[in-house]
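Q: I have two molecules that I believe assemble together. Could you output structure tokens for the complex as a whole instead of separate predictions?
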Amino acid sequence: MQVALDTVWDWLGEVPDPEIPVISLTDLGIIRDVAWDRETLVVTVTPTYSGCPATTLINLEIESALRGHGVEHIRLERQLSPAWTTDWISAEGREKLKAYGIAPPVDGTAADGKTVALAARLLGQGNLVIECPRCGSHETEKVSQFGSTPCKAAYRCKSCLEPFDYFKCI
Amino acid sequence: MTAASTTLDPAVYADWLMRLGDNTLILGHRLSEWCGHSPVLEEDIAMANTALDLIGQTQLWLGLAGEVEGKGRTADNLAYLRDASRFRNVLLLERPNGDFGQTLMRQFLFDAFHLELLKSLQTSGDPRVAEIAGKAIKEVAYHLERSADLVIRLGDGTEESHSRMQTALDDLWPYVGEFFVSDDIDKAVADAGIGPDPADLKAAWRQTVDEVLRAATLNVPGEGYVHKGGKRGIHTEHLGFILAEMQFLQRAYPGATW
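A: Yes, here they are, computed for all two components at once.
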């Protein structure tokens, strides 16, 4: 029996991201499409980072969640293009990240590899303002561009002195 | 399958894709050797993360190489069951890690090239190549920003860090020329509209390198002898040691999974 696609989206909205379990796979924006191909439910997933070790686990969780809801035939398809971007993280997902202690991405600030801009930043110009998810201070500084996972950068708040993760833009 | 890629000999096309995948595989493996050994925790994490991105990209490139080759070989087969003479990475990337400065300089020189290469591949005539490049370039932009940042900080740092970075640059410079050497395989791929002529990437690479090295107060060596051969499978003695470690499990226990 073909369940309504809206229902399937709701089910997927309850599957947590294995790395950051406060947000769901739909909050993260990695489910690109859900469709029925006759009796088979086809879920199209895009990876966040190409080497993200959670990808296999995510596929497994999608499959087991859908089976749990009684879907018998499932096909997972990988879609690389358009490449995942943090712009696709939902507004609700961003609030959840913040409440969890991870500063959500500031859209439009992805790295472009331009080293001129980099030199300016090293001179203290054009620094990205990241709000501390704990105390709300704008007095924060980057410790490292790579945090606990490739998708995050390590920051430190100069007001409350707590370290925190920033979900960087890609 | 696009019209362009059908005119290209699959063996030639697969060989070219292995150059892309072997570059990311060997550099990714080299970086992973630092795991647990970096001077500071943040850098340990950053190098492991960069390695992870590169190994992820390897899965995509070698996966496509296996698909194009059409002999049923997977990305894992290609990574773990080829001998050194079948590897197609440039020689720079198999250089031993050396000190932290050597590792960073190697990373920077490659990242600057990698970004230009991926920019060009984003408009490849084969959409499978274009989409992998479109994915990888986002990650590589961060690699370049980090390595350029650290090359500047260390070059324009203390007397000790400056001299180590200059030594690293002088030691590695003879290997960068290989990025831009075009051979018959590059030409065939360029003619098919799939990839660039590597020589065309040099000007943009040089601009980034000059800009960063100037800010790092380092002297760019002159054009001299160019070590090459990796793209054709003629490697330095270092690759064999990498493969001995990387391939040990699949060689000792063929087909092992867990």
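A: One point stands out. Chain A touches chain B at residues 47, 49-53, 80-85, 110-113, 115-116, 118-119, 122, 143-150, 154, 168, 170 (CB under 8 Å).
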